[in-house]
Amino acid sequence: MATMADFRYDKATWCPGCGDFSVLAALQQVCVRMGLEPEDVCCVSGIGCSGKISQHFGSYGFHSLHGRSLPTAQGIKMANQDLTVIAAGGDGDGYGIGVGHFVHACRRNVDITYIVMDNHIYGLTTGQSSPTSKKGFKTKTSPQGVAEEPIKPLELAIVSGASFVAQAFSGDLKQLQRLIEEGMKHKGFSLINVFSPCVTFNRVNTYEWFKENIVNFDEEEGYDPTNKAMALQRIAETDSVCTGILYQEQRPAFHEVVLGATEQGTVKVPLEIPNDEMQALIDQFRRA
Amino acid sequence: MTNEFTWKVGGAQGEGIDSTGEILATVLTRMGYYIFAYRHFMSLVKGGHTNYKIRASTTDHVYYHGDDLDMLVAFDQLSIQENEDELIEGGIILHDAKFQAQTKREGLRVCSVPLLDMAKELGNPIIKNMVAAGASAYVLDIDPSNFYEQIEQQFGKKGQELVDLNKTAFNKGYDYIKENYPDVRRPAPQATRPSKGYLLMNGNEAIGLGAVLNGCRILAAYPITPATEILYWVLANLPKYGGKVLQAEDEIAACIMAIGANYAGVRSMTSTSGPGLSLMMEALGMAGISETPLVIVDVMRGGPSTGLPTKTEQSDVNGALFGSHGETPRVVIVPTSIPDCFYQIGRAFNLAEEYQLPVIVCSDLLIGMNKMGFQDLDLSTVDIARKNIVTQEQLDALEKGAFKRYSLDTESGVSSRSIPGMKNGRYCALTNEHEETGLEIEDVPMRKAQMEKRFRKLDVLEKNINDWGFEYKGAETPDVLIVGMGSTQAQIEEATRQMDGLSWGHLQFRCLAPFPKDTQKYFQAAKKVYVIDNNYTGQLTGLIAREIGFHDKLTPVLKYDGNPFTIRDIVTAVKG
Predict the structure, then answer these.
(1) With helix as H, strand as E and coil as C, how does B161-217 read?
(2) Which of the 8 DSSP states describes residue A50?
(3) Of B149, B155, B100, which is closest to residue B127 (Cα–Cα)?
(4) Is B464 helix (H, G, I), strand (E, B) or coil?
(5) CA-CA to B382 of 20 to 30 Å: which in A130, A191, A265, B68?
(6) CA-based nearest residue in chain B for residue A80
(7) A186-191: average pLDDT
(8) Mean pLDDT over residues A201-216, rounded?
């Protein structure tokens, strides 16, 4: 059985107080709790502060390009469905340059868990507005306040066909862990959007701000995460400042329905084709 | 030449031109002719002008569709206008009687045949293709039994009625010409039936087939002319071997999925054309610095931008050679023919895996979408050599967490990789510069050492590239050297047959990166070098000058109108 130490690798380089520490810790704890071995897990990240998570996490990893964690992760899962694949990144990474991949990963229902550390700002490039920055939010690139409406990842995921959509908060480690665990157990694409405050550049969306404003749907009586209409309505009513499992449906994962689906990962299928079958493939082209 | 003939059918897109051509191409191949079939088409679904040309030979493989034309079947006037210049003196036009044929050429034999009317009489206008085949068969003096055999094989499963209908249509066309134009003949030279059937295949199919046989188990791609057929063929054939095909949302995702899959241990590739290759440039660097095997097939078409999507060109070469940010070693292969596409894709997978780098196979529309008949493929070349992957025993022997994925202790520059799932093989593939275990670094000596390690791969590769990276024919020390890359092989070779009295040499590049430096001696000897470059800026010419010099000897021969080089283009350039 793997321990927490097995899922640790190198010292994290985030700013003291960064919300991303909680995400890493929660992920490590969940992997231990689920009895996973480090070699059976793969963590894929994009670029930005959040992108460092794949280096700090003790499993196999791929620190890919800006916005490209999802295609990388999907390629890995296609190659080996027996791996537990986690994609992770930030709001700029996932909802800016990566938003196209995000929508398609949702509709494809690839069995990966996508954790987005959403701090509403670009941290590593020192404080510009991000796709989830609230309208009017002042940053280095929006001195008069952001003019655009923010991307709404929860709604976007639900209408795009994600089969598990949750939102957590770095200031509530217990719930964060639980949601990551539920997401990892869920068969299909799971989004866990995590409010993960940037203590250096975002002075508005702070731990205190989230604590005051978050509505926890897990504690809300009558909230039914299988009811799509209810989910969309309640999320809108809180202006997306809510936590919990917001939406969930059971649907086959991509690797189960893809043409050529195999019981075991593609990586385990033989590469050699017997000689007579090679001949048969060539004979398709024979004119006789 | 008496051992060959050429035939073409033309009409509006959507009129069944391809199927008409396919019928004759198949019959001729079955009869033992070597053929090359060329499709001229436009980027629209219906209308415009399209044609299908076949060049057939009784004696030799045909790698190019030929400069001239013996016989044209025209479904409309536009087909005559567009193609009459290609006809030889005394050439034959069979045209549909639905229009009054006009030609500016004299000395052609023009025959009016009610193709559409006869098809309509049979209750199916589409079957005019079989009427046209029948008419062509009489002119070419091909025994109808050859067509009957093909019709039975093609339609037999769908019932006798359809077989009979097709035979009737064929006979109508045959008899009509026989009665009305009995003397219009262009007898095809006699083919000797081979002992077994020839293959009829295009380069895209050859790539798909080669990939599947050589262990490719995941293809992620986005549809784009002229590469889409690779996706089709692999989709139809790979799933039964447990492989997966994914139509990605765009080329960026396609290429990166292929990298992810390769990282996870599955031989994977992506296929695309110019605009898609541009989108894959950042991924190329990602494969390079993370040292992940990757195979990209780029079927080149006319550029820039969306350019000429249905026309051929060799203008992505600079992109393939130098594209992406920063510097990363890569291999660029340009297959020289349709069968060569099969052999080179197998090589690409082995090189990508052995050297852990991107291998770009630049085919082009000429060989990608056009078909040729040939005797067979050599299956003994299929050799799935998985190299430089650590074994579980090696990992078990290491201390916990001691595996160095990017170990500097390697002469070849290649460090063994582990595959996710292997115990004690953990590493993070990193697109940032990293130290030996994969952790991000910015320190000077390590950065230098990692760059040097990655580029050391080329030292080893360069040695092996000279064995297969080019082909040479001609005088040992030629006066005139004709140089080409990839698919121009066929036309250059035919052009050299008209170089009597010249001391010539023909050098054809198959690998552009690393550059095969053993070619130098031929440049050294030559007084004059003609570089056949299917692009505007002379990309091959520039590469040669950069790699080995000889600037004053190099004369680029350029073509960028969307059409492949003709033999005449080359002969004229060289002989003046």
Answers:
(1) HHHHHHHHHHHHHHHHHHHHCCCCCCCCCCCCCCCCCEEEEEHHHHHHHHHHHCCCC
(2) G
(3) B155
(4) helix
(5) A265
(6) B264
(7) 98
(8) 96
Residues 440-459 of B with CB under 8 A from A: 440
Q: What is the pLDDT of residues A38-97, one digit of tens each?
A: 999 999 999 999 999 999 999 999 999 999 999 999 999 999 999 999 999 999 999 999
Concatenated DSSP letters for A115-179? EEEE-SEETTTTSEE-TTSPTT--BTTBTT---SPPP-HHHHHHHHT-SEEEEEETT-HHHHHHH
Question: CA B96 to CA B128: how far, in whole Å?
Answer: 10
Distance of CA B222 to the CA centre of its chain: 18
In A, minimum Cα distance to B439 occurs at A55
How far is B138 from B240, CA to CA, in rounded Å? 44
User: CB distance from B199 to chain A under 8 Å?
Assistant: yes
Q: What is the pLDDT of residue B44?
A: 87
Residues 90-129 of chain A with CB under 8 A from chain B are 100-101, 103-104
Q: How many Å lie between the alpha carbon of A287 and the closest alpha carbon of chain B?
A: 5
pLDDT (tens digit per residue) in B201-234? 999 999 999 999 999 999 999 999 999 999 999 9
Task: Tell me how far apart the alpha carbons of residues B573 and B558 are, in angstroms, rounded to a whole number.
Answer: 10
AA letter at A167? Q
- Global model pTM greater than 0.90: yes
Closest CA to B417 of B435, B438, B432: B438
As beta bridge partners, residue B440 has B434
Contact at CB, B420 and A80, closer than 8 angstroms: yes
Q: Which residues of A touch B420 (CB under 8 A)?
A: 39, 42, 60, 76, 80, 83
> What pLDDT score does A11 carry?
87
CA distance A201 to chain B (A): 23
Check CB contact under 8 Å for B264 and A79. yes
Paired with A216 in beta bridges are A243
Between strands B504-509 and B511-513, the pairing is unpaired
Which of A38, A60, A285 is the closest to B199 by Cβ? A285
Residue A73 sits at the chain B interface (C-beta within 8 Å): yes
Between chains, do A80 and B248 touch, taking CB under 8 Å as contact?
no
B432 touches chain A (CB under 8 A): yes
First to last CA, chain A: 61
Range from A6-20, B231-245, B483-497 carrying the lowest mean pLDDT:
A6-20
Contact A63 B432 (CB under 8 A): yes
- B window 530-559, beta carbon within 8 A of A: none
Q: Give CA–CA dist B568/B492, Å, rounded.
A: 10
